[in-house]
């Protein structure tokens, strides 16, 4: 099953393309931080980190952010991809849940602990520095939300590693629950408040409707990434836990049917996201309107970034040519105006069915 090919589909995404005008300067500053961070032990590692194009990634999520906050968020994205490759997908922790837990939560503590801190682990030291930069740039509520989302991400990765260690293929509902956490969407979207210097009131951020919108944005991006990453992960034998393989294993779909069904399920979530967001926006505060708009930018930007990133299109994650300028948007051939219809009614999946309830705001 690990060798099945999944071709990138045209994406249904009726959300406007956007990118921060200072994306290239943000990239320069973030890569300079990477060079100082101690994470690059060789020129090859440095090239792979650069090949994630993490600054472009986050410049599409937060196209109107404060540049002095945006570059810090981009540093975390670079760090996150490096950590994911070295500690989550490969290496001695990737199939050892207990060892991963010990390592990951020491890293989490390094993020949370303010002030001077000695860290023997280079990943812990780097994320501690990012935490200090965030504490300088943003308030305690914004930082607390990011830290809690970061901890949830590491918990999801441990769940994923536990499945790998026991050769367990989760069923569809379990997979969606796990993927919602393990894909890293939580901390990525939590940084929107920090990068934009906004503070969404608790009564809005914690409302069922906004919680659902945040989770739906995370889920759409996570399922899109299942398609983006398949070529790269096939070469590294990392595709066991993928939406396509879950549908093949538990629903007896052919690979082609599984791809169609995965896209249709994703489209159903996006349709619900768009409808619920339209209902909430007229009554939202200015910070929440900014946040909800950038949830959409993240969905669209994640696709546009991944269609170009060497991380997904080069076997070693390194660009084959010199760095090109960042385009505002991708070619129209990558998009479709029509969502697919799913045979799997998402309202019958317990982990996400509540998104379709009458949600309070």
Q: Could you walk me through the main structural features you see in this protein, from its secondary elements to its overall organization?
A:
The protein is mainly alpha-helical. The protein has one domain (22-312, 340-356): Farnesyl Diphosphate Synthase (Orthogonal Bundle). The chain is built from 16 helices and two strands. A two-stranded parallel sheet has the order 1-2. Helix 1 packs across helix 4 (67-89), helix 3 (54-61) packs antiparallel against helix 15 (286-306) and helix 11 runs antiparallel to helix 14 (255-280). It starts with 10 loop residues before the first strand and ends in a 25-residue tail after the last strand.
Q: What class, by secondary structure content?
A: mainly alpha
Which sequence of strands runs across the widest sheet? 1-2
Overall mean confidence score, pLDDT: 92
Percent helix, as a range, is: 55-70%
Total helices: the number is: 16
Tell me the CATH topology. Farnesyl Diphosphate Synthase
What is the annotated CATH architecture? Orthogonal Bundle
The value of Rg in angstroms is 19 Å
Low-confidence stretches: 1-6
* CATH class term: Mainly Alpha
Within CATH, the superfamily carries the name: Farnesyl Diphosphate Synthase
Terminus-to-terminus distance: 43 Å
Biggest sheet layout: 2 strands, parallel
Question: What topology emerges from the helices and strands here?
Answer:
Layout: E1 11-12, H1 23-37, H2 43-51, H3 54-61, H4 67-89, H5 97-112, H6 122-137, H7 140-165, H8 172-182, H9 185-196, H10 202-205, H11 208-228, H12 230-235, H13 243-251, H14 255-280, H15 286-306, H16 310-313, E2 335-336
Parallel strand pairs: 1-2
Helix pairs in contact: 1-3, 1-4, 3-4, 3-15, 4-6, 4-9, 5-6, 5-7, 7-8, 7-9, 9-15, 11-14, 11-15, 13-14
């Amino acid at each position: 099953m690990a060798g099945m090919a999944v071709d990138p589909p045209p994406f249904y995404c009726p959300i406007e393309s956007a990118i921060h005008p200072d994306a290239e300067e943000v990239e320069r500053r973030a890569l300079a931080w990477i060079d100082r961070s101690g994470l690059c032990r060789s020129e090859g590692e440095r090239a792979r980190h650069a090949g994630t194009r993490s600054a472009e990634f986050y410049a599409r999520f937060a196209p109107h952010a404060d540049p002095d906050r945006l570059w810090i968020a981009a540093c975390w994205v670079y760090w996150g991809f490096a950590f994911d490759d070295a500690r989550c997908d490969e290496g001695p922790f990737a199939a050892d849940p207990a060892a991963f837990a010990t390592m990951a939560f020491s890293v989490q503590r390094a993020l949370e602990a303010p002030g001077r801190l000695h860290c023997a682990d280079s990943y812990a030291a780097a994320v501690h520095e990012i935490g200090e930069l965030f504490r300088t740039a943003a308030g305690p509520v914004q930082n607390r939300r990011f830290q809690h989302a970061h901890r949830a991400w590491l918990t999801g990765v441990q769940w994923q590693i536990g499945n790998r260690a026991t050769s367990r293929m989760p069923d569809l509902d379990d997979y969606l629950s796990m993927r919602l956490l393990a894909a890293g969407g939580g901390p990525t979207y939590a940084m929107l408040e920090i990068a934009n210097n906004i503070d969404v009131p608790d009564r809005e951020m914690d409302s069922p409707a906004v919680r659902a919108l945040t989770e739906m944005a995370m889920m759409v991006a996570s399922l899109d990434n299942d398609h983006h990453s398949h070529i790269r992960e096939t070469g590294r034998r990392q595709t066991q836990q993928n939406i396509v393989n879950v549908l093949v294993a538990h629903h007896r779909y052919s690979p082609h049917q599984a791809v169609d069904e995965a896209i249709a399920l994703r489209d159903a979530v996006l349709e619900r996201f768009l409808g619920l967001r339209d209902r909430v926006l007229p009554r939202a505060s200015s910070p929440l309107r900014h946040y909800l708009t950038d949830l959409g930018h993240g969905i669209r930007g994640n696709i546009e970034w991944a269609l170009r990133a060497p991380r997904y299109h080069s076997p070693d994650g390194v660009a084959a040519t010199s760095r090109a300028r960042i385009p505002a948007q991708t070619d129209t051939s990558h998009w479709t105006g029509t969502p697919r219809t799913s045979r799997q009614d998402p309202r019958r999946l317990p982990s996400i069915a509540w998104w379709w309830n009458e949600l309070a705001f």
